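Please, structure for the following, as tokens.
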Amino acid sequence: MFRSAFPDRLDIAGTSIELLTRGAGRPLLFLHGGHGVDAGDALVERLAAAGHKVIVPSHPGFGASPRPPGVTGVDDLCHIYLDLMEALDLRDVVLVGVSFGAWIAAELATMGTGRIRRLILIDAVGVKVSDRETRDIADIFATTVEDIPSLFFHDPEKGKALFHGFDFKNMTDAEVTRFVRNREALLLYGWSPTLYNPKLLGRLRRVNVPVLLLWGADDKVVGVEYGRRYAAAFKDAQFAVIGGAGHYGYLEQPDAFASHIDTFLAA
């Protein structure tokens, strides 16, 4: 993880977004989580091999994508991705979001699904499902770097292996810079309230395409019951739990997640 900048860039909405493209076929827009995205992401490679043209932008403020001064919230990111889909003339898009990226994807779909064919959310944040006294989402901003593997992964050792042991001494300067920028941007977009929009749950009924929500059975950031209640807010949603997976379970079990996605898109 934390490799150098992606090979391509796209000038859109007053900024220059780094862009990774894999495969050929029907377009699939992949919105990454708060950790950023790696050029060798196994799920991205698996989806590309299954006949998709997978388009992976780094959100403004993440990776090597500059953040324009006026871009401060998830709604701003949604409008940038509306512009991106128009600029690339993407139609019948499969929209996939992971964690923080799934929040963006869900918000984006409530704004209109004219260009979207299917919506897939993986261990999504973004909504409030309980009362004001109950915390639905773990306070990841109070988590130290050392605590990340046990919080975000079913197998902490696998998490450490994916991210150089979260040891900055084992990273290049470019990798450290990407890690810090990703964490800083996530803090900006998700600080208060913590990783959700209090209005989003009631808006999910507007999504008029089939939705698939995939959840790690050992997600300690947003538990399985949170995921079930998230799914229930859509008009047409399937929900599946994958064993041996935490919040970033798609990195631990990319083949299992890809298999569910393949089945959903083939139905």
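The longest helix spans residues 173-190. Strands lie at 8-12, 15-22, 26-31, 52-57, 93-98, 116-122, 211-216, 237-242.
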